[in-house]
Design brief:
A 6-stranded mixed beta sheet has the order 1-3-2-4-5-6, with helices on both faces. The chain folds into 2 domains: 130 residues, Response regulator (Rossmann fold); 70 residues, Orthogonal Bundle (Arc Repressor Mutant, subunit A), CATH 1.10.10.10. Helix content is 48%, strand content 12%. The N and C termini lie far apart (58 Å). The protein is globular, with a radius of gyration of 18 Å. It has 10 helices and 6 strands; from the N terminus they run ββαβαβαβαβαααααα. About 4% of the residues have low confidence. Helix 8 packs across helix 9. The chain is α/β, with parallel strands linked by helices.
């Protein structure tokens, strides 16, 4: 009898420890998921993986991961469309591709991307990037990070800040964390302040910018970028 041809499952969900960050992998390279799962063992749980973009979005909705590791299959406009939605849901996205063109990555950062790594990097380094993002950090190529710093120093923030809207340095840091889609707790931890203090800063930032919610902030920044 001729054996049936192997067919890769459209998606897979996995049992995972409750106290570890959850990760979903949406990547066309079949070696990425098992390799990254091994690199993350005991530090984060790969709760699902797939090689298909639509299935990846389905997994993300089902499993609410902290981080989604996405490959080229989320390119060509699909990632641009779903990034704000993922950010509003509290999911951080790491782009893992062969090449990292600076302008493309910078554009995606403006839409909510939290990290980008090259497939040339060791999976241990990619795993460390995933863990950093799961705790509220961002992992970007040096050239992209330098460009963002330069734009922040010149006062750019997606067209939201006008000359008469003066924010303090701490308010700018809070604005940066909020526009990146961090939860209040994660942003407070990142900035080293209490949740109550962060809420006070958020209230002042919203008042100065005429905003009513963090979702509105992310949406406005993504549109203006």
């Amino acid at each position: 009898m001729t054996p049936a041809p192997y067919r890769r499952p459209v998606l897979r969900a996995h049992v995972y420890p409750k106290d570890l960050p959850k990760v979903v992998i949406v990547h066309e390279n079949r070696f990425v998921a098992p390799g990254l799962r091994e690199a993350l063992v005991a530090r984060a749980s790969v709760v699902g993986d797939t090689a298909y973009g639509a299935a990846g979005l389905q997994l993300t909705g089902m499993l609410t991961p902290s981080v989604v590791v996405a490959g080229d299959l989320l390119g060509d406009g699909v990632i641009d469309h779903f990034l704000p939605e993922l950010v509003r849901a509290g999911t951080r996205v790491l782009l893992l591709v062969d090449e990292l063109p600076g302008e493309r990555v910078l554009s995606l950062v403006g839409r909510g991307l939290s990290g980008a790594c090259s497939t040339d990097e060791a999976l241990v380094q990619v795993a460390n990037a995933v863990l950093a993002m799961a705790t509220g950090g961002a992992v970007l190529p040096p050239a992209v990070a330098a460009s963002i710093v330069t734009q922040w120093r010149s006062g750019w923030h997606g067209g939201l800040i006008q000359p008469d809207q003066k924010l303090t340095l701490r308010e700018m840091e809070v604005l940066n964390a909020m526009s990146d889609g961090l939860s209040t707790k994660a942003a407070a931890r990142l900035l080293g302040i209490t949740v109550k203090t962060l809420e006070n800063y958020k209230t002042r930032v919203f008042a100065k910018l005429g905003l009513h919610s963090q979702a509105q902030l992310v949406s406005e920044w993504a549109r203006d970028r």
